[in-house]
Write a structure and sequence with these properties.
Elements: H1 2-8, E1 10-11, E2 22-26, E3 29-30, E4 55-56, E5 64-65, E6 68-70, E7 75-87, E8 90-101, E9 104-107, E10 110-114, E11 118-125, E12 133-136, E13 157-163, E14 169-175, H2 181-186, E15 190-196, H3 198-206, E16 215-225, E17 231-232, H4 237-242, E18 248-251, E19 254-255, E20 257-261, E21 265-272, E22 279-285, E23 288-290, E24 292-297, E25 300-308, E26 311-313, E27 318-324, E28 334-338
Parallel strand pairs: 2-28, 4-20, 5-9, 6-10, 7-11, 10-15, 16-21
Antiparallel strand pairs: 1-3, 2-20, 7-8, 8-9, 11-13, 12-14, 14-15, 16-17, 16-18, 18-19, 21-27, 22-23, 22-26, 22-28, 24-25, 24-27
The structure holds copper (II) ion (CU).
Copper (II) ion is lined by residues 134, 136, 174, 316.
Length: 345
């Protein structure tokens, strides 16, 4: 039962704000470092210390890592072993989905496609181990779903071809390799799959939202690193069953991220891409929780927006929220935090 306290004491993904520009910071705070098995080892990335939020939040652009790719035809996707500097200046082995479109290269692209469109892609496995892609949340025929039984070996290829019948919303894709899903996803094989439709466009127009500027996909993940800053993954038998927890919380692969914001409404597409950690998210100014509005969940936009001051997000779940950064004065910080909770209540 000692394990249980470890979940509870976790405090934050943090965000943000200052003024004319405020800032978002995303941090996690395992107050009891028991979950990392010792004192915090990676100064200056201690997720509890607000002063350490100095890394600019990674925000996707039109190509490159997590670039937004508006699907305009069949894609050739390759899984490759690569490296990525998760902790600044420290390369870590990482697994990536690579693809190209119109002369631009992407790694782990944020795929965006119109509801009702046909999605066609081949997956080439250039890893030394088996893999397969699962389209999380999308309604697909069984053979297109990336079930672990469809796993392909090194050098193998899988062809996907299905109609995107879901309505607009925030979905995602990730590895579903038989018995390797947790480890491969932890090492990078996951990204967003955004479905657009008229409702989404009306919302964006009404609120003047722009993907990558004021409409921000935000994947939250906890990870552990070794002394060299390389990703650490070696669950004990118990952890293999209960889930591997990290002691650094990354927002869009950025540790202790901060983002300047202006006093206006932002849409955040929150995705819990962690292996096992549940977050109880709140936007906090000082010790005051601020209002935010839930507009969508795993199935797309909800019937009626709901204003709340906190929300739970379990692994794999998405939450589309609107947050008014005007709740902070110029120069003030707002933190997106994960509050402590008792998982057994
Ligand atoms: Cu999934």
């Amino acid at each position: 039962m000692l394990q249980r306290r470890q979940l509870l004491e976790f405090g934050g993904v943090a965000a943000v704000a200052a003024a004319g520009g405020a800032a978002w910071m995303y941090y996690g705070s395992p107050r009891s470092n028991a979950l990392a098995g010792g004192p915090f080892r990676h100064y200056p990335f201690d997720p509890v210390a607000a002063a350490n939020f100095q890394q600019k939040l990674f925000i996707p652009v039109g190509s490159g890592p997590f670039g937004v790719l508006d699907v305009a035809g069949p894609l050739k996707i390759r899984t490759v072993a690569a490296s990525f500097p998760l902790l600044p200046g420290r390369e870590s082995p990482f697994l990536l989905y690579q693809t190209e479109q119109a002369g631009k290269a992407y790694q782990n692209p944020i795929l965006r496609i119109e509801s009702g469109a046909r999605f066609t892609a081949s997956l080439d496995n250039a890893l030394a181990e088996p893999t397969i892609i699962h389209w999380h949340g999308l309604h697909t025929p069984a053979a297109m779903d990336g079930h672990p039984a469809s796993t392909i070996g090194p050098g193998g290829r899988y062809e996907y071809d299905f109609k995107v019948s879901n309505r607009g919303g925030t979905y995602w894709y990730h590895t579903h390799a038989h018995e390797l899903t947790a480890e491969q996803a932890y090492h990078g094989l996951a990204s967003f799959f955004l479905v657009d439709d008229d409702d989404q466009r009306r919302l964006a127009k009404a609120l003047d939202l722009q993907l990558g500027v004021t409409d921000l996909p935000l994947v939250i993940q906890d990870k552990q690193f070794d002394a060299q800053g390389k990703l650490l993954y070696k669950p004990s038998a118990h952890e293999a069953m209960m889930g591997w927890l990290g002691d650094i919380v990354l927002a869009n692969l950025t540790p202790n991220a901060v983002q300047a914001v202006t006093p206006r409404t932002y849409r955040l597409r929150l995705l819990n891409g962690s292996n096992a950690r549940i977050y109880r998210l709140a936007f906090v100014k000082g010790s005051t929780p601020l209002d935010f509005t839930v507009i969508g969940t795993d199935g797309g936009l909800i019937e009626r927006p709901e204003t709340v001051t906190e929300a739970f997000l379990a692994p794999g779940e998405r939450l589309d929220v609107l947050f008014d950064a005007g709740q902070a004065q110029p120069g003030e910080d707002i933190f997106l935090r994960s509050l402590a909770f008792d998982a057994m209540e």
